[in-house]
Amino acid sequence: MCGLCGILVSSQITVGREVVSNMVGTLRPRGPDAQGIHIEPGIALGHQRLSIQDLSAMGAQPMVLRPGGPVIAFNGEVYNFLELRKELLAERDHAFRGHSDTEVILHVYDAWGLEGLKRLEGIFAFSLWDPIRRRLILMRDRLGVKPLFYANSNYGLAFGSEIKAVLAAGGVDTSLNEQAFAEYLWYGNSYEERSLYRGVQALKPGHWMIVENGEERIEPWWRIEEWLERAPTANTPQEAAVQVREALDASVKRQLVADVPVGLFLSGGIDSSAIAASAMNVQSHPLSSYSVGFDFEGGVNELPRARQVAEHFRLNHHELKIEGANLPETLMTLARAHDEPFADAANIPLYLLCQQLGSDIKVVLQGDGGDEMFAGYRRYAILRNTHWWRLWPRMLSSLLRNGGERGRRLARIGEATGNSDAALRMGLLLTVETLHDPPEAILEPGRRTALSSSTDPFLAYRNAAGRFAAHDPVQQMLLTDISVQLPSQFLTKVDRATMAAGIEARVPLLDERVAELAVGMPSSWKAHGMEKKIVLRNSQRGRVPASILDGPKTGFGVPYEHWLRGPLHDFSRDMILNTGFLQQFGFDRKSVECAFKEHRNQRRERGFLLWKLLQLALWAQKDA
Fold this sequence. Notes:
By secondary structure, this protein is an alpha+beta fold. It is built from 28 helices and 17 strands. Helix content is 45%, strand content 15%. The chain has a six-stranded antiparallel β-sheet. A six-stranded antiparallel β-sheet has the order 4-5-6-7-11-12. Strands 15-14-13-16-17 form a five-stranded parallel β-sheet, with helices on both faces.
């Protein structure tokens, strides 16, 4: 992976090398191996390189096809580049200087234009400047694995792999995006194209921005409906399981292609175990694998299961122990890496694991996306019985809320699943917050009223509910998770936490060859009764130990609730109850203090709310 940035320069404005150097310098952790800058009339591009393929100077970026020809700054991997290269070489007028996938993209565009770019498969975001047509193309991969942001700046349209690079262009509107703030209070991240900065937007997955002769258009170059509309290739779940296994083997094989060593993050769950099985099926030498544990005995401990999988496949296994007392510095580092408040605490072990790799491993495979593709969450099984949940009596919720934490949890699930509004049903299943006690309740009354009247925290889910209205509740939830939740939360976590340590993460379960099969199959093949991931489990029979395939899903629980009562309590109180922070966002001090007391005394679980406030406070301090 790498980091890219640039400016489409407005007319009559000159961009100095220092401006671009400042922008690209913010991305150094993403690509510590080399830096490149390209400036010509109309465009300025910067690139930080993490050398993965073609380690020679021939792989340096920004890369120019020929003098006066197209130039590209690229982040990611094109997994079908060897196939495309072979096809291009069959045409006499294409000669390659190196063997990088970046060079292949330039030739694809030169030979086949915009339609050719649609043939790319992989995880990528790039900027491509065509000086002949005066055309800038910003393009992001299908599922949004790699990020790309843009904003109007002092010099013109600024863009980059991270928000910090865009802000370094200067003149960007950094006031608070109220809609994104409302979403953050509910979910711990913003959605769709929104960021917490009013002037900065994300290019959505499967989209490109094309600016040509002063005219700008943003449109999807790919939609998930393309996979839904294709005729199924399997007639039974058994056939589908065989196809998934073969597709995953092919996916892992092409994702193991690198000129540097490749490792594996191993959780002991089905997803990473399936990837390990495929890796050992397509190559002879063992991978190095890495797992993490915590200092809290009451939390989830997946080390024994990960160790079992590693021994089964004879991997070169390593383990890391994380202690809550050593976290404040890590939390601040991650706040800088994300550029926004981000409340998925799983970024912590990811980042620390990547730090442990040092210079030994530059590329890791990991299992993100398996739950969304193959129905691994409990909500999918619950949604198979939506018609019964709609009979949920309101009075029962009132009684359950008085019955402790378990009762409150059941009331939340019942009210969410029984909601007849698909947007509310899906949105409420994705958070521990409730309509009965919304997170806005900790705001000052005036601030709460203003925010509620101008925003809708369920906006992304309303858009998805309309888009996927023709599907059954389970399939609708799966498609929404893939289109909304996956890029905004889980893939954001993967990119920032790994790239902050200069590590490239690849996600084989989101490879086009696997994802297309998963999306196209009926939801009943994935979840039935209380069974989950049925097809994926069956695809691994005889390869992955049965105790892993049939064991309970434990999730990757990071014990931040425990840390907030213990080793992080004083630190988080100092950050959150700071008068300047409370006033900046309009939080009510008494309400926040009450949340701290309830949580520490275990009268009520307030961990997620306090964790969101802590991440917001760290972000605010970073930007102060």
